[in-house]
Design brief:
alpha+beta, 8 strands
């Protein structure tokens, strides 16, 4: 089984309160293993098998039934997430600045990518790499000069944004868990090996 992270858009904002316990139970009901959440903003770590796109559709349908409202879901494997974080073209933000990554369901077309990157200003810079939108907000996301609606229109699809600092912590958490599992497997093999 592979470790994945699901990023749910709009959880615990605008009156859409969902506890992390409820999210965990929902994912377990779908048959996923080792389910946990990371920060109370709709980040779910789980183990499963299959294509990320199929998982996105399955989780989206289940969440809508469970919660009574539509939720956009974006799934990345642990390795894909690490690649996305390492691929950010922006250096570590200075005080008052924010670097964020926006997750999309599909890679935008060349025209959509160009339109999105054309939204860049002195305050906000955008770069699209594959299914991720990399965003450098020099005044922080609270002082952005570009609206979320303008970005959605440019990329031509919904997306959800996470701060690069949180994503780096998430990647470190996943790497730590993977290393621990590898040590446990090695220990189990050595204890059962013929002496």
């Amino acid at each position: 089984m592979t470790t994945y992270v699901a990023f749910l858009a709009g959880i615990n904002v605008g009156g859409r309160r969902v506890t992390m316990d409820r999210l965990r139970v929902s994912f377990e009901e779908l048959g996923y293993d080792d389910v946990s959440t990371f920060i109370a903003s709709g980040n779910v770590i789980f183990k499963g098998s299959g294509a990320a796109k199929a998982m996105e559709q399955k989780i989206t349908k289940h969440m809508e039934r469970e919660l009574g409202f539509s939720v956009n879901v974006f799934v990345r494997s642990a390795s894909a997430l690490r690649t996305a974080v390492e691929s950010t073209p922006f250096t570590r933000p200075k005080s008052g600045e924010t670097v964020a990554v926006g997750f999309m369901a599909t890679a935008p077309s060349a025209a959509a990518r160009k339109a999105t990157e054309a939204l860049s200003t002195k305050q906000d810079r955008f770069v699209v790499i594959g299914k991720e939108l990399h965003w450098h907000a020099r005044g922080g996301l609270g002082q952005t000069s570009v609206s979320g609606n303008a970005i959605t229109k440019a990329v031509g699809q919904p997306f959800t944004v996470r701060n690069i600092k949180s994503l780096r912590k998430l990647v470190a958490t996943l790497q730590g868990a993977a290393a621990l599992q590898a040590r446990r497997r090695a220990k189990a093999r050595s204890s059962t090996a013929p002496g």
